[in-house]
Amino acid sequence: MSSNLLAVPDFRRLWYVGFIANVVRWLETLAFALFAYGATGSAFVVTALTMLRLLPMGMFGAFLGVAADRVERRSALIGIVIVSMATVLILGVLAAVGGIAIWHLALACFINGICWTADNPVRRIMMGDAVGPERMAAAMSVDIATSNITRVVGPAFSGVLLASFGLAGVFWICLVLYATSLAAALGLNVRHRPERAPQTSFGASMREGFACLRTSDRLIGVFAITVIFNMFAWPILSLVPVIATDHFGLGPQGAGLFASCDGVGGFLGALLIAGLARPAWQGRVYAGGVACYLLLVLAYALAGTVWLAAALLVLIGLVGVGFSVMQTTLVYRFAPVPLRGRMLGLLSMCIGTGPLGFIYLGWLADTFTPRMATLLLAAQGMLVLVLAQRYWRPVLRA
């Protein structure tokens, strides 16, 4: 199935743009985390940097979803890549002259977070348009599998670059990668023709999207699970480099390899879902993936050796990909065609609740220890998931 999808030129180009964006994101995430922790010694600062990548989703997700229905998406994607290139170029210059500061990294995280927010209503809708709705789940599996490959390659490569060339070397590599992504985006042929004269304002369009959401129990369930995952599960990964260095005593290269373990599991899980998942199973894979993820995180937080912790991270990535693949797929399936951009924008807004979890996790880590913070957040996530079952039960019948 993946080979058939990659034979579609526009899908291949869109896949490559996403691949590069994810490689750069993971290169930056580890580099930012190790630099910030070394400079400040604060786990809260590390989680705050990751939080700033998510903050724009909560702030602008609904707005960008409406905008995506009104602009030509190819042009928007090209603009996103150019902004990302400019950001990493400035960081590279600052690092090269020794003028890089934590606030530079924070601002870059926020800007790149805005670009990331547009991924669902722009690039991923274009992928669905390129391959057709009937192949959307397979397309998302390929995209998520690729994303998880970058979670293996990105941190490991970032650790090597940091050890060999310093922070500036990471940014120059990112700039080169973005240049190839821009070339792919410029070659796209798929077009989205927006309405020339929208009859409703942005506010009215957003209200229309919320009105649609209120009438769909299944969409409400998808969004409820998304909020739970992003507040209680995803933030946990931001402390992986801290636990690697602080608790297990690993250097940059070892921390990079340790941080890549969940990506190995995610890649394997995406391949499994692409080959086995049927539409009737998608809702159960989505909800079950979050429950298993949180249970495995509890075991990871209690692991006594680096090898056991690494093995559990692989399993965490394996089950977590069920959530990642089905998140966009289910919204694409359940949303009315004219409102897909708005619904995926609202999905980005739900993902944007993650900063609350990152701030809370950072406070827990500084109050207790990074491992105890991980344990407490996962335990609370399981409790909330059980209490919220009335909202996500309709998803199981999807």
Biggest sheet descriptor: none
User: What structural category arises from helix and sheet content?
Assistant: mainly alpha
Could you say which overall geometry the principal axes of the C-alpha atoms support? globular
Number of folding domains?
A: 1
Number of strands: 0
CATH topology: Growth Hormone, Chain: A
Multimerization state: single chain
CATH C-level label: Mainly Alpha
Structure, explained:
There is one protein chain. By secondary structure, this protein is mainly alpha-helical. It has 18 helices and no strands. It has helices spanning 2-6, 9-40, 43-68, 73-96, 102-117, 119-131, 136-186, 202-214, 217-232, 240-246, 252-259, 261-276, 282-302, 306-334, 340-351, 354-367, 370-387, 389-396. Helix 3 packs antiparallel against helix 16 (354-367) and helix 14 (306-334) runs antiparallel to helix 15 (340-351). The radius of gyration is 20 Å and the shape is globular. 56% of the residues are buried. The mean pLDDT is 86.
